[in-house]
Each structure stands twice: as structure tokens, then as C-alpha cells.
Amino acid sequence: MKPLKNKIRKMVRESYARVAQPDKCRCCGDSSNLTNILDLGKKLDYTNDELAIGLGDANLGLGCGNPLTIANLKSGETVLDLGSGASFDAFLAAKSVGKEGKVIGVDMTPEMIKKAKKNADKMGVDNVEFRLGEIEELPVPDNSIDVVLSNCVINLSPDKRAVFGELFRVLKPGGRISISDVLRSGEIPGEIMDDPKVYTG
């Protein structure tokens, strides 16, 4: 089972590394793709104001929902964003928790971490930080998080039990989890498991 888990992690990491690189990004500089991101975002319950934040930079249109709609974030809270990517949901969360709050984004792709930090500097968002790590082994202390956000990331993990174990480890007593994701009702066919573009799409 371990070789399969490693294969999946490698496939996901390489796929999102390609998306993070400006010369290979499917949306950068392409007005039709930016329009597609806006249209999709509206269907996923993001507001027009939210969607405009970092369009084409932080907002790459990679999620499958808006986890913030049920997160009920409050000023001063500490938020953890799983698979934070280029930082879109992290920036929205940072705005909600205010200067007294903090957002930690964790992503296993160095290229995404680099892009997220660049976006934070560019947009002047200073209550976020981004850490390189896997969601099965979070680089976050015990009992330190008020709210965990995840947008279409847990489905990509080859060890979901470990992910939820980590969530409960890092959450404070009474902490909350807000997840937008996809579920499967049967086994994933081999042709999907072996195709990075389909598996991570």
C-alpha cells in the first residue's frame, strides 16, 4: 500500500507544481479562462467581491466549493487552510479574522508555497503564513487551531484517516472543521488512478 500512497502523492505534487508555474498556468493571461473561473466561482457560492481577490494569481479556480460559507469565522481566530494552494481561501479567511486573527496555509507543493507567499506580499496580506507540509502530517502544534478549512483537497490524500487524525490533533477544544470536497461511492478505476490530469482534475 505504501508504494501506491507514494505514487499518488508524487502525482498530485507534480500536477499542482505545473499549475503554480506562471508559464504553465492554465489561467494566467487568458481572459477566457479568467471568465471561466468567475463563472465557476459564482456556482460555488463565492460572491463577486470574493472572486475578484487575486483573480488569476491567488484565485486559480481549483476548488469545488466555498468552505467559508459554513465556517462562521470570527475576528481573532486562528485558521488552518489545508492544501492552501496559491492562497485564495486563505486570503478570504484572513480578511474575516482580521488583524487580531491568523491564517496558516499548508501545502505540499513548494511551487504553490512560493506563489502564495508572493501573492501575500503583492496584496499586502500580513496575517497569513504558509508552511510546506503534507496534510497527513501537519506542521502545526497540538490544540492551536480554531477552524480548519479544506477546499477539494482531502479527496486527493491517499490516507484520509491520517488527515482526520491530524485535524483533531491540531484543533482546540470546541474547534470547527469546514470542508468542501467530493466523495466517491465506489472504487476508482485504474485509468483514473494512473492519469494525473484526470485524478487531480
Provide a descriptive summary of the structure in words.
The chain is an alpha/beta fold and 201 residues long. The protein has one domain (2-199): Rossmann fold (3-Layer(aba) Sandwich). Helices cover 40% and strands 16% of the residues. It is built from 8 helices and 5 strands, in the order H-H-H-E-H-E-H-E-E-H-E-H-H. The protein has helices at 2-20, 31-43, 48-52, 88-97, 110-123, 160-170, 190-193, 196-199, and strands at 78-82, 102-107, 128-132, 145-151, 171-180. It has a 5-stranded parallel β-sheet. Strand 4, helix 6 and strand 5 form a beta-alpha-beta unit. Helix 1 packs parallel to helix 5 (110-123). The longest helix has 19 residues, at 2-20. The chain is globular and about 45 Å long. Residues 25-29 have low confidence and may be disordered.
CATH class: Alpha Beta
Taking the alpha carbons of the first and last residues, their distance comes to 23 Å
The rough form would be described as globular
Q: Per CATH, which architecture? A: 3-Layer(aba) Sandwich
By CATH, the superfamily comes out as Vaccinia Virus protein VP39
Structural class: alpha/beta
Low-confidence runs (pLDDT<50, min 5 residues)? 25-29
Number of strands: 5
Per DSSP, the total helix count is: 8
Strand content: 15-25%
Biggest beta-sheet profile: 5 strands, parallel
CATH topology-level fold name: Rossmann fold
Strand order of the largest sheet: 3-2-1-4-5
Task: Kindly give the count of domains.
Answer: 1
Q: Spell the H/E element sequence.
A: HHHEHEHEEHEHH
Rounded mean pLDDT is: 87
- Rounded radius of gyration (Å): 16 Å
Helix content: 25-40%
